[in-house]
Amino acid sequence: MNLYGHKVNQLARNFTKKLNERISPLGLYSSQWAITLYLYEKKQCTQIELCKYLDVEAPTITRTLTRMEEMGLVIRNDGKDKRERVIKLTEKAYEMFPKWREAAQDLEIEAINNIDKDELEIFNSILEKMMKNLEQ
């Protein structure tokens, strides 16, 4: 029995641990990096959108965003109604982003060392299919 899910989970745990080792000295943790990366690409989003993207409960996102707001990394504004909150990165976050991205990219380069492009394309395709299967 191959237990693919277990192996994927162990890889994710190891990757998260190593990422935290690299970006925490730069003032960020992996859960905050995921939010930062999403906001960097989207420019802004709602808390609900973040919950769906990260597949976590609202209280978890709220706690992380509160910490990030206290750190001066995000701004939360009222949305269309009082229940909706729109989140954006601050200038401080945009200034730090290249350092965080470099640390994350360095780790990815290390992780894919000795794996050729064709293997990575297959791996990516398989991961996408597995995620799609679990979304159904």
Automatic annotation (TrEMBL):
Enumerate the InterPro entries for this protein: HTH_MarR-typ, WH-like_DNA-bd_sf, WH_DNA-bd_sf
Keywords attached to this entry: DNA-binding, Transcription, Transcription regulation
Q: Does the keyword DNA-binding apply?
A: yes
One function term, GO molecular function aspect: DNA binding
Q: Which residue intervals define the domain HTH marR-type in the entry?
A: 1-132
Keyword Thylakoid assigned: no
Q: Which top-level group of life is the source organism from?
A: Bacteria
Q: List all membrane-crossing ranges.
A: none
Q: Which PROSITE patterns match?
A: HTH_MARR_2
Give the matching Pfam families. MarR_2
Q: Which PANTHER family match?
A: TRANSCRIPTIONAL REGULATOR, MARR (PTHR42756), TRANSCRIPTIONAL REPRESSOR OF EMRAB OPERON (PTHR42756:SF1)
Give the protein's recorded name: MarR family transcriptional regulator
